[in-house]
Amino acid sequence: MPKKFAIIAVDRIRLGDDQLRRRLRDGVNRFSRFGKAKAAAWNQFATHLHYQQGDFKKPQTYAALGAQCDRLEKEWGTKAHRIFYMATPPSMFGEIPKYLGRAGLARDREWTRIVIEKPIGYDLESALALNAILAASFEESQIFRIDHYLGKETVQNILAFRFANPLFEPIWNRRYVDYVTITVAEDVGVEHRGGYYDRAGALRDMVQNHLMQLLCLVAMEPMVSFDADEIRNKKVDVLHAVRPIHRDAVHKSAVRGQYGRARTGGEKVKGYREEDGVAPDSQTETFAALKLFLDNWRWQGVPFYLRTGKRLPRQVSEISIQFRAVPHQSFPPEASLGWQPSRLVMSIQPDEGIVLGFQAKYPGPKMQLRPVDMRFSYRESFAAPSPDAYETLLWDVMKNDATLFMRADQVEAAWRLLMPVLEVWKTTPPSDFPNYAAGTWGPEDTQGLLAQQGHRWPLPAELLDHSNRKRKNS
Ligand code: BG6
To answer: Where is 309: in which H helix or E strand?
Structure first.
């Protein structure tokens, strides 16, 4: 952090600077990856933290905030960047920018920024409305829409991998790629967020943002430069290329699921409908899978399968590029019993790295082919630990670098794409919920989505579990 800065927390509740500092310190002690706060460093940092009591819907709050900023600038003898971070319930997203605008706090285009996190709207209409409210007070260049997936190292590495190496880009297209799967699986349930989640569901909570970002990065054309808008243009192009899902074909392109209670690992796991804050007859999906096609030269005919869900067997996020089979199989049939087409897996989390699977000759007098893997692991290759996504993103806001943030048109394009699915799911309630047991890979129909094309969901790659693999191979 620079020498001169202030963090001013604004909220309705009565709190003093000291109480705020204590709360934040407790948070750091509990959650920081660097462990507990060191007294000297914390005490120094804490002097920059201030609390201001105020109602978000009262102009006085903003007048007072502006006055405090002016006071600090005077004290520092310099003009300061002002970043308004809406760490509030989404219901306030449409209010705060209006008040900031009216108070004149958004006027300075160069020195003022606003940060907003998903959910950016509840559907296309509300997203358009929210973006319009933001645009009424702020220019697009001042608006930083966070999707924390973009802050993850492994997600940023997709661009590095694809465009910093001459090796893969020539085969990154319909001639060599058979299909692509994007999996973002969580083993946790809805935890303490049942109230929010029951209104959202997996499509809104994960697909509209995180999975769409992954799709854009994996399918986009090479950028001309590392300019924020250049990259974002290329990403939006992907969403524009996605073949629209027609309402009457939703059942062929999308699958939804909800977890039911189960016993996993000797433990009883609640069904979704039994979770706190969830309606006992809830129709909300905790699992969603989509099959998408991109109508462009690079990807014509290549299916992109996306899936995400809660209470799946394990936490794993990965993108798998399944390559086509060789054009002619010259080995005798008995040589290639365990034969598998090559595949490349980008492991986003919890393992971080890349696995390339291909065929090799099994040692011995006979020609026998066996699948083997080549692995790159962040942990093994780099001594530096990966920063938390939010560290990267907050720093980028301060640096005024919008590369890793969502632009209005991208958010809207993603909503536009999903609207037919959301509408059909809303008007045709599921008859079979809960339709997957906690701890399984989602409803059975999910397999059908791929089976139509003769494809299947890959097993998650094992990036680090070498001992296990060695045992299997022997
Ligand atoms: C959030 C969703 O955006 O992302 C949560 O609202 C989800 O439901 C979370 O659990 C997953 O983030 P991560 O970084 O843990 O993969």
So the answer is: strand 303-309
In terms of Cα–Cα distance, which of 293, 162, 312, 308 is closest to 223? 162
Q: Within this chain, do residues 143 and 37 fall inside the same structural domain, yes or no?
A: yes
Mean pLDDT, rounded, of the chain: 94
Q: What is the mean pLDDT of each run of 10 residues along the chain (474 residues)?
A: 94 96 97 93 96 97 97 96 95 97 95 96 97 98 97 95 96 98 96 93 98 98 96 98 97 97 88 97 98 98 98 95 92 82 93 93 92 92 89 96 97 98 97 96 94 90 52 38
Structural domains counted in the chain: 2
224-239: burial string, b at 16+ Cβ within 10 Å, e else: eeeebeebbbbbbbbb
Q: Whose CA is nearest to atom 4 of ligand 1?
A: 206
User: What pLDDT score does 395 carry?
Assistant: 95
Task: Scan for tokens 């990856």, then name that residue.
Answer: 33
DSSP code per residue over 365-433:
SS--EEEEEEEEEHHHH-SSPPPPHHHHHHHHHHHT--TTSB-HHHHHHHHHHHHHHHHHHHHS--SS-
Q: Give the separation between CA 219 and CA 241, rounded to whole angstroms.
A: 10
Domain assignment present for residue 231? The answer is yes
DSSP state of 51: E
CATH number of the domain that residue 128 is part of: 3.40.50.720
Query: pLDDT tens across 25-67, in order?
Result: 999 999 998 899 999 999 999 999 999 999 999 999 999 999 9
In the residue annotation, 210 being an active-site residue is answered as: yes
CB atoms near residue 28 (< 10 Å): 15
363: exposed, middle or buried (C-beta count within 10 Å: 0-12, 13-18, 19+)?
Answer: exposed
What DSSP character marks residue 351? S
Residue 211, domain extent: 150-473
Domain shared by 103 and 197, yes or no:
no
Q: Which among 116, 117, 120, 148 is the best mutation to test ligand 1's pocket, defined by most ligand atoms within 8 Å of the CB?
A: 148
**Which atom in ligand 1 lies closest to the alpha carbon of residue 317?**
16
The distance of Cα 439 from the centroid of its chain, to the nearest Å, equals: 22
Of the candidates 50, 148, 192, 210, the residue annotated as catalytic is 210
269 closest CA partner among 202, 205, 191, 184: 191
DSSP summary character for residue 168: T
In the reported structure, the alpha carbon of residue 472 is separated from the centroid of ligand 1 by a whole-number distance in angstroms of: 33
Identity of the amino acid at 220: M
pLDDT (0 to 100) of residue 267: 87
Mutate to test the pocket of ligand 1, among 149, 259, 287, 316 (most ligand atoms within 8 A of CB): 149
